[in-house]
Amino acid sequence: MLSKRAVGQHTDIRQSPVQNRAFELYAEGKISEALAVANDVVEAYRPNIIVLNLAAICHWQLGETEQAVSCWQRAIQIDPNCADLYINLGAILTDQKRFDEAEAAYRQAVRIQPGHADAYIHLGNVLKALGRLAEAEDCLHRAFAIKQDMGSAQGEQNVAVPADPTIKTTQDNVRELLQTGVSLHKSGQWDAAIIWYRKAIQADPENVVALSNLGLALQNRGKQLEAIECHKRVLSIKPDFAEAYYNLGNLYNEMYELDLAIVGYRQAISIRPDFAEAHNNLGNALKEMGMLDLAVASYQQAISIHNHSDIFHNNLGVTLHLLGKPELAVASYRQAIHINPDYAEAYGNLGNALCELGERDEAVESFLKATAMKPDYADALFNLHAILCDTSPASAIECLERAAGLAPHDRKIAVFMEMLKDYTGDTEFCKRPFIPRVPIFSER
Questions:
Q1: pTM exceeds 0.85, yes or no
Q2: Predicted pLDDT of residue 425
Q3: Range of the domain at 261
């Protein structure tokens, strides 16, 4: 599965406009043209990991896998301490079923950046393919623990609230056991909830609510493989249980098995056409697969069912922005903010789109609101620093330093901090094109 992870490095200022053109062509879906421009940059200037990463992605999308591998290996020679390069290399090696080499790449990524949750998820998937299930489960558990420590900074909300028991059984104590498990689950006591769900299942082995909630609790504990088996067991008992397909979709999405996630969401929707969250998460998976038009249609369907979801409108805005439609993205972000005036990520995304439209003053205002609502919002601080460079270099430097303190492992921020050290006392380093970071993407 294509990671498309962004990387950053200080580049020759002469190549920036040409390099930016390569990214513009890629965003427009003109892969061959983007690759040609990227190759021109590599040949004409000192190669850098940003353009080599882009060239590798283009080669991969064009089916030129060996050339892609070569580009990533060349980029790693330039910067052997960039974890994301190893993740991208591991992804294409996995796609080629070169699992041993992929494992080595992912292990190097976690060696460089032990707190990289995505690296552990990808490593877990490779280990699962190699039949080393216990090691795979341990990797997924580590990834979950890292994400929990991060406080779900990007607002991901893929896990459904446990269902309250509504199915009648002949065992008098099952309902009580379930209610105890649900209460513990909602309070975040997942290990205790798992015990009570298992007791309920022991009393009633075909209780789909207990099985479904056990799957959710196991997912919360980072035991994705066990959780998948729970939801599959639910479907073997009740094949029309839409929530089980939805939960499977969320699990596969979390594990970056997007093809399977899409199948799960579509199955859920076929059973419950008004399942707004399934339409939204289908859009999430389609977006990650690069199927942006289909993703837009899914978000629009989710909104038609539930028009008052700030997250649905934000996700639609992100995808419209990626499609090169910033005006429409602005409208979606504003609608998200209208529904939830405290939605910091929507303000950050709005700032990106406004900047692209040349509305720099409004963009600054949006970034300031985002950082006021969420002081640890490193992406908004980074974007704010970029837009302030021309008018207020001192403030720009302050924003960059705050962003670096909040996200010390963010490669792009680190690169600009290195530039700052190189150019201390000289504001020329600020005079570069504004390149918005990836918008915050919220999931439900």
A1: no
A2: 46
A3: 174-322
